Every structure is written in structure tokens, then in C-alpha cells.
Amino acid sequence: MDLLTSPFSFGEAPEPDGYRRSELFLPLSSRLLRRSPRSKLRVPLKAAEYVPSVALLLGRLRRARPDVAHVQWLPLGRRDLVWASRLPRPRVLTAHNVLPHSGEADAGERRALYGAFDRVVVHTRGGAEQLAQFGIPAERIVRIPHGTFNTPTSIEPPAGRTLLFFGLIRRYKGLDLLVRALAEVPDARLVIAGDPLDPIEPIRALAVELDVADRIEWRLGYLQENEIELLMRDATLAVFPYRGGESASGALATALGHGRPAVVSDVLGELVEEHGAGAVVPRENPGALAAAIRELLDDPAALNRAFRGTEAARRALSWDAIAEAHERLYSDLLAKVGGL
Fold this sequence. Notes:
It contains 13 helices and 12 strands.
């Protein structure tokens, strides 16, 4: 198995185990930007390397003649479709976000993009429903959940009254809603940990206005693995009040993998409901968010039930289970359309 990728922008890449890794996509810009990944030069540098990288990728695939070509990211829509439609078949795409974070999409573009693949992997039933709206046949859609990250071998049950907002900080993730909810949750503290891609000054101002700033701890920037483990160990609940965007979240999977129950908006509700790993509330509703948080913090039995739900989620989201699901996908695909 060959992984054709770009250099890691954050942290150290894991050592390949049973596969070969070639960093042939955007090699120069990725290395130049490693110390400043949010630089204003990021877009022009990557744009300059885009066409040469695509040429290298297609050339490598022509020589390798893989049994299956599996693409993980196609962020540029029609531009990416130009080369994706030239990939060897059968071909697979993982649609981490069926719709853009804004929720707005060119239906024709999405239909063409997803229709160019023999199978499209989504992480949730909601994602499968979105694909169906673009006319993708059900037999081409495969649901494989998002796996957990860095799951510890020993996990203590949650305690205390610490809320954790974790991951990239984007407007669609609803941090402002959580700050409003915090004002209705006495004695709770909030840790905000992650890399801000959108301005955080309005959130800080809101916290001051609501008189909760002294109960908020900010840990901004990329988090190393050991920092994530400490954050999760200290947290009682992880909170993801998304107002839109994807129906799956790596940050949510990470929290559940560390045994931390989650309070989420209905944008992310599927995984939490399926395993009973927390609470789901309507999006854009700080009052409902606060009520759900209070119920779990104030009721030890409810918190323990949610903790047991995270154990079920951790088993279902293990990378062994996900690898087996992908192997079944590839075998089934080769049996059915390998002659394309």
C-alpha cells in the first residue's frame, strides 16, 4: 500500500507501518510553511505548486497501476475534478465534508465531483443522505465512521465541572454559543484549546460582557499528543455546539476515544445518540445547551451512563474496525467494478 501525500504541517508524521509514504504533493510550500502554517503566503505558495504536484501524482499513479485509487481530500471542486477524473479505476473518495463548512454548494459541481468515483465514503448517515440529494446511487455510498485518535490504554471516569472546547476554532463551530451557555452553568469552568482560524476577539469580548471571562482558560495553537491527553484527563465534558458544517468531527471522536462524554448540537448528534455518549441539543440554542450541560454535571448517574457510552463508541471507532471496513470496501469494489 502506498500513501501519496504532502508533508505534515503540524507535529511529526507517524512512522509508516505496513505501507510506504511518499510526500510528493506540495512538498516545497509545506516545508517552507512548517514554522508558520497560517502565513499569508500559504495560499499563493500552494497555488504555485498545485499543477506540478498534480503532474507528479498522476505520473506516479500511471507507473504504480494501483488496484484501487483512494482520495481523501478534494477541496477545490471543479479544479480538482480535472485531475481526479483521470485517476485509474476503480476509484474511491472519502467525503469528510459532503457540503462545505458554509453549507452552501454548487449542486452541479458536487454531483460531478462525487459522480466521478465508483464509491464515496461518508462518516454518518446524514452524510449519506446529503450524497443522495446530489443523485449519487445508494450502492455507491459507503458509511465508515471517523476513528478516534491517540486513545489511551487506561481511562479514568470524568469528574469535576470542567468543560472542554477542542479543535480548530471556526465560527461554524459555535464557540460563542458555548460562552453564552457558560453564563447559565454555575461553578463550571471552560477550557478552549485549539488553533484559531477565525478571529477570537469577539468571543473574548462576549465573555467579558457576560462576566464569565474569569472562568475561561485559553490554550491557543497546535496541540501535541501529550497535551491532548492532559486536556482530556482534566475535562468532565467535551462540548461541540456546531451551528453547521460537517456531520462528523475528528475532535468529537478524539474526545469519545478518551472517555469524555460530549454535549453536541444536532449537527453532530448521530454518533452521540447511537452510543448514548452524552447529550444532543438543537443547534443555535444556548439555553438548551446549558440545560444539557447542567444535567450531566449535576447528576452523577447520568454522567456515568454517558461515560459508559463512550466505551461503546471507542470500540466502534477503533482503527482496527475501520481498517477492516476499508478492506471489505476494496474487496467488494474490485469484485464488482474491477474490470472498469
